[in-house]
């Protein structure tokens, strides 16, 4: 990952993009892909599609990642000036207390903290109360003071930003799934530089965390031969992890090819062949029922599109301190650019019945 690619990734990660309010993050993504795409378009809800036009006779594939992150909305402001929240997406109530948060208002960011009783006075039964019972203190004197700057419905995110750990690993909020839409953009750039014969669509979707809504808006409007959805997946290489649920997945061992359910066997095998041909390490993971990603929406679009979920190993998912290895992220872009280069060898990705 060179300096420009790293700056793009960190800008994505440090630009708040809570589900339903993805515009700022999408602007960062669009500004990047406009440098090498033949066409970039957005829709009414902010889904972004960038296109590299390959040969007229080649297939069309898409590489997608979702732009949104989990967070909160301000549900009410009480008369003492405290904010009461509603969760946006799968917020973990056990990690939100005692955190700094940012309220994104029409007039700019407002800093707050999620209150937590001191251990000296805390009872055992209030260890993990629901997010709706975790008030945010913005330092206001009263409700009138708060209402001058904050409105009901304003989005809220954790205030953590990206931090470099040892080696090539990074930590922060929203790695789920800014690393995926980084891979989509970088796949497009690398495919364009290689002048592949395949037409490549890079897609950055909105509202995945609320039910794959953006993918549902986009999928039926595109005539695609295959889709690869890039999202984070659970690593199981740290103390307390659950390999019996996630499988054996480790940071630094490469992107993860999912198998089963929505994951199309021909596309999965094609990507694995490319990995072998290109000496790119990949891992395998079972998705026996559903992927939990935008792949669930893309594979049933337009009567059925061969789709694969490619995972980036991620520790501590849906917390403010998610951890990934940037070598896995970079390898995913290399892998999918190489897949775009070989896709023209396939007349069809349909199964042979």
Question: What would you note in describing this structure?
Answer:
The mean pLDDT is 95. Helix 1 (3-14) runs antiparallel to helix 5 (175-193) and helix 5 (175-193) packs across helix 10 (326-342). 50% of the residues are buried. The longest helix has 19 residues, at 175-193. It is globular and about 65 Å long. It contains 10 helices and 17 strands. With 353 residues, the chain is an alpha+beta fold. It folds into 2 domains: 3-69 and 173-345, Aminopeptidase (3-Layer(aba) Sandwich), CATH 3.40.630.10; 71-158, Elongation Factor Tu (Ef-tu), domain 3 (Beta Barrel). The strands form 3 sheets. Strands 1-2-12-3-13-16-14-15 form an 8-stranded mixed β-sheet, with helices on both faces. It has a 6-stranded antiparallel β-sheet with strand order 5-4-9-6-7-8. The protein has a 3-stranded antiparallel β-sheet with strand order 10-11-17.
Ends distance: 42 Å
Order of helices and strands: HHEEEEEHEEEHEEEHEHEHEHEHEEH
Q: Could you name the CATH class of the largest domain?
A: Alpha Beta
Q: Under the CATH scheme, which architecture of the largest domain would be assigned? A: 3-Layer(aba) Sandwich
Mean pLDDT: 95
The side-by-side strand order for the widest beta sheet comes to 1-2-12-3-13-16-14-15
**Contiguous uncertain segments of 5+ residues:** none
Alpha plus pi helix count = 10
What structural class should be given to the helix and strand makeup?
alpha+beta
């Amino acid at each position: 990952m060179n300096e420009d690619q790293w700056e793009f990734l960190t800008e994505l990660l440090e630009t708040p993009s809570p589900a339903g309010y993805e515009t700022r993050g999408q602007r960062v993504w669009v500004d990047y892909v406009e440098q090498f795409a033949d066409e970039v378009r957005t829709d009414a809800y902010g889904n972004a599609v960038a296109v590299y036009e390959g040969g007229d006779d080649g297939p069309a594939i898409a590489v997608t990642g979702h732009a949104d992150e989990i967070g909160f909305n301000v549900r009410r402001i009480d008369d003492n000036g405290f904010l009461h929240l509603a969760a946006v997406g799968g917020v973990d109530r056990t990690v939100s207390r005692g955190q700094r948060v940012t309220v994104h208002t029409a007039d700019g960011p407002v800093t707050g903290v999620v209150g937590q009783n001191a251990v000296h006075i805390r009872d055992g039964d209030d260890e993990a109360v629901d997010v709706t019972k975790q008030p945010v203190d913005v330092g206001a004197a009263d409700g009138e003071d708060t209402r001058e700057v904050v409105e009901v419905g304003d989005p809220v995110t954790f205030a953590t930003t990206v931090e470099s750990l040892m080696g090539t690993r990074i930590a922060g909020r929203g790695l789920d799934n800014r690393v995926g839409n980084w891979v989509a953009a970088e796949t497009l750039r690398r495919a364009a530089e290689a002048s592949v014969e395949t037409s490549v669509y890079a897609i950055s979707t909105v509202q995945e965390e609320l039910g794959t809504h953006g993918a549902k808006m986009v999928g039926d409007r595109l005539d695609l031969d295959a889709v690869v959805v890039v999202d984070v997946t659970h690593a199981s290489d740290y103390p307390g992890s659950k390999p019996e649920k996630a499988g054996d997945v480790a940071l630094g061992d490469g992107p993860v090819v999912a198998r089963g359910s929505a994951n199309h066997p021909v596309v999965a095998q094609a990507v694995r062949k490319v990995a072998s041909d290109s000496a790119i390490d990949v891992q395998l993971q079972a998705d026996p029922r559903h992927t939990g990603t935008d792949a669930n929406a893309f594979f049933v679009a337009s009567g059925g599109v061969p789709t694969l979920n490619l995972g980036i190993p991620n520790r501590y998912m849906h917390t403010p301190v998610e951890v990934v290895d940037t070598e896995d992220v970079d390898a995913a872009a290399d892998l999918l650019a190489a897949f775009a280069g070989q896709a023209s060898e396939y007349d069809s990705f349909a199964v042979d019945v």
